[in-house]
Amino acid sequence: MENKIINLGIFGFGVVGQGLYEVLNRTKGINARIKKICIKDPNKSRPIDSSYFTTDKNEILEDPTIDVVVELINDTEAAFDIVSTALRNGKAVVSASKRMIAENLPALYELQSANKVPFLYEASSCASIPIIRNLEEYYDNDLLNAVEGICNGSTNYILTKIFEENLSFETALQQAQDLGFAETDPTLDIEGYDPKFKLVILLLHAFGTFVKPEEVYNFGIHHLNDFDIQFAKQRNCTVKLIAQCRRQNGSVFAYVLPHLVKEHNLLYDVYNEYNGILLESAFTDKQFFVGKGAGGTATGSAVLSDISALLYNYRYEYKKIKQNNQPNFTNDVKLKVYLRYKTPDQVDLAEFFNISEKYESPEWRYVVGTINLQKLKEAGWLKKKDVNLLVLE
């Protein structure tokens, strides 16, 4: 596509779609223009001329003059249909749909390989942080040990307001929603599903390992209460929802869990809607990336970066897959955790390898101890509202 004007067909014109429109019109030197935008509701008021819009997906998918399909919708099934059809039609595709990608990674990998067209999705993982491109290009060897960090701007905004401004969970969540950082239904964010989808994508580019989302354990910040917050503050810690994948003994494990984070940790000072990602490798030790993880223009800029890369015929090479030494996925790893509960019958402390600290009061109880990640994944206790978990450093 080098030295030509790219015609874009966009699906969706919500927060990210409008962010893309804004950054595209403010950026000089990118030879791309929007030809058509497919939307669901033709009667909804929108800030640009109505001639851009259609409700017929085939006006984009079947138009031979449209070079790149940009998929930015929330419907997972419809998004996969759009992306797979576009790839079969020989069109390059850019997407920001982390759930759709995570749930269909093997099929999407095969589709782009079979049809010899690029499929880029930098915006799906950490919005403005170019983490996939770095994993693909800089860490293209097998010496990467771990990827961990904050990759959900909504929950980080909520936690920042709780710990820095003493706001209630409900007030902080409402602010995040008002600012467009969290959805009207915040379940995917606050229960840790959104960062899990991103982690599944990063696992593939970091280690070449395909993992189904349901194999990765996620537990969010939805059970956090004042007792937990006080526990963290007494230990000069904050709480961050962290997604982590790490190579260990020839395998790789991954999870999304809230952590108690100390001041020396680089993630401690990642505030508001920002994301922060730590990469750890054998030769470079740790490298730290930080950038906005939510918001229309932040995510739109990542989409635009992928569009720009297509001008230079860029595509993911999936080098880790081709090296044929991918680590197997496992949940067999020990974690040191704080477990807070209300009554003894709510939890099974026999599942712990050891318990180093125990507290009881008429209102709350907690233990600090070591437990296997697989046991946590199988345990029913964390579904109980009065039970919460934090991983300790």
From TrEMBL:
Keywords: Amino-acid biosynthesis, Methionine biosynthesis, NADP, Oxidoreductase, Threonine biosynthesis. InterPro entries: Asp/hSer_DH_NAD-bd (IPR005106), HDH_cat (IPR001342), HDH_CS (IPR019811), NAD(P)-bd_dom_sf (IPR036291). Residues 12-122 form the Aspartate/homoserine dehydrogenase NAD-binding domain. Gene3D superfamilies: 3.30.70.260, Dihydrodipicolinate Reductase, domain 2, NAD(P)-binding Rossmann-like Domain. The keyword Disulfide bond does not apply. This is Homoserine dehydrogenase. Belongs to the homoserine dehydrogenase family. GO terms for biological process: methionine biosynthetic process; threonine biosynthetic process. Pfam families: Homoserine_dh, NAD_binding_3. It catalyses: L-homoserine + NADP(+) = L-aspartate 4-semialdehyde + NADPH + H(+). It comes from Chitinophaga varians. Residues 130-307 form the Homoserine dehydrogenase catalytic domain. Pathway: Amino-acid biosynthesis; L-threonine biosynthesis; L-threonine from L-aspartate: step 3/5; Amino-acid biosynthesis; L-methionine biosynthesis via de novo pathway; L-homoserine from L-aspartate: step 3/3. One of its GO terms (molecular function) is homoserine dehydrogenase activity. Its EC number is 1.1.1.3.
